[in-house]
Specification:
The protein has 6 helices and no strands. It has about 120 residues and is mainly alpha-helical.
């Protein structure tokens, strides 16, 4: 009798795990200016170096912003706006460093990510 109860409990646990695994949604994808992504897209080594240098400068600007009194005392909404503006500038600046061909590859990659996210239930 104990064996039947143990087996039934084990069967329920396995079935439950299988159902939960099927319901799990893939993570939402985002485009990031990583070395791997830039290499996959065929961004030139020279441009990649410029991007990396700019990212370091921008990271310092973000750090300074986060440490500023104005930012520390700002509302959460204002913090999001300020950081969003800095991140938006980062995206535009890096994008403008690329050739037209490289920009087209980035646009295609972003569109691919958008479609995959939509197919997985993200808007």
């Amino acid at each position: 009798m104990k064996k039947i109860i143990v087996l039934a409990t084990l069967l329920v646990a396995i079935c439950s795990a299988t159902v939960n695994a099927q319901d799990a949604k893939p993570k939402k994808q985002v485009f990031a200016w990583t070395k791997q992504v830039m290499t996959e897209l065929g961004i030139s080594a020279e441009t990649q170096q410029k991007v990396e240098t700019y990212k370091k400068e921008n990271d310092l600007e973000q750090k300074k912003l986060k440490e500023s009194e104005e930012y520390i005392n700002a509302s959460e909404e204002d913090k999001r706006k300020k950081m969003g503006a800095l991140l938006g500038l980062r995206q535009k600046t890096i994008y403008n460093m690329l050739t037209k061909e490289e920009q087209q590859k980035v646009d295609a990659k972003r569109e691919q990510i958008k479609k995959e996210n939509e197919a997985n239930g993200y808007n």
